[in-house]
Amino acid sequence: MVQPAWQDPVLLAPEAAPVPEYGSGSLADLLPTLVAGQGVPGFEASIAELTPADRNCVFLIDGLGWEQIKAHPDEAPFLYSLLPTSRGGTGRPVTSGFPATTATSLASVGTGLPPGEHGLPGYTVRNPETGALMNQLRWRPWTEPKVWQPHPTVFQLADAAGVRTAQVSAPAFEQTPLTKVALSGGSFLGRLTGEERMDLAAERLAAGDRSLVYTYYSEVDGQGHRYGVDSDAWRGQLMYVDGLARRLAEQLPPRSALYITADHGMIDIPFDEQSRIDFDEDWELSAGVALLGGEGRARHVYAVPGAQADVLTVWREVLGEQFWVASRDEAVAAGWFGPRIDERVHGRIGDVVAAAHDDVVITASVKEPHESAMVGMHGSLTPVEQLVPLLEVRS
Length: 395
What we know:
The protein has 395 residues and is an alpha/beta fold. 32% of the residues lie in helices and 19% in strands. It is built from 18 helices and 18 strands. The strands form six sheets. The protein has a six-stranded mixed sheet, sandwiched between helices. The protein has a four-stranded antiparallel sheet with strand order 11-12-14-13. It has a two-stranded antiparallel sheet with strand order 2-17. Strand 11 (289-295) and strand 12 (298-303) form a beta hairpin. Helix 10 (194-205) runs parallel beside helix 12 and helix 11 packs antiparallel against helix 12. It is globular, with a radius of gyration of 21 Å. The relative contact order is 0.20.
């Protein structure tokens, strides 16, 4: 039914936003399910569709969402052929978690916890202890990692239980705080090229009767941010990583399961005023705001003391037809960050949280010039960002 022009606009209700499948089909459920099948105590098989294996390998391709694979059968013939195997042969994806961004997702993968518990609930969030924004991908300003994220990783617990555990990634990631709080445990093995990583991952998988190996590739995401997922540069990376996945799959030792997944999908945003709303030039959106956190499609908004209600009202009036705009309490109650929120995490979440529904972003051209210039974006609750593959190859 067409709404008459004189009626009030229909605002998006926070409680109606699609919530990630925490507890049954999110990235946070993957490693707990795998190590439960390997007999590591304290874990349950949350993703019921998966079958246990003695040797498990997770290949995480940064930025390669479910919908991108479905849309590119020619560039990714191997990955496309595996779509029916996803999520235990159901042909279904899993969800990233909110926000759909690298730091949050990698922490969910490595700790087996939703964002509300591991405490990395965004690209940048306020540190309640200092009042300053903390970039959780680049770890700036410096914050003691084990204070910020005190939970053990699944890798650490699996290693302690006798599972041969390794991470195979770029050497530059070995000493980063994000790796330490999200992906540490067992051996870190740095290799520069994708081919070297695939070969070494297969070797480490064969090194134990029970083994858990994680490997990672970043440049699909990198080219998507720079040029967009509709670019030749991005398609070239997709073709390359398709070959890497095939290379790893062909080397699996016996009794192995390979799971190919991603931390989020991606969407290209046009460079026009309707699609890119500049917070730094918008007096309505900036009024009463002390800090703007998150990223373009998943914003944490921190109000000056006493202005929380006014900021929520304005953001909802201005953006509520294009974004799910929620107060902190509404976002928590709706389960955006998971079923539970640790006390230390509560103040990191914005007084207002805005998640994009339409093909639109909130940029900050002065404070975030690099991020504002990106073509490909991600972070929100939409299927193109949330749905990620869980492709499976077994030997």
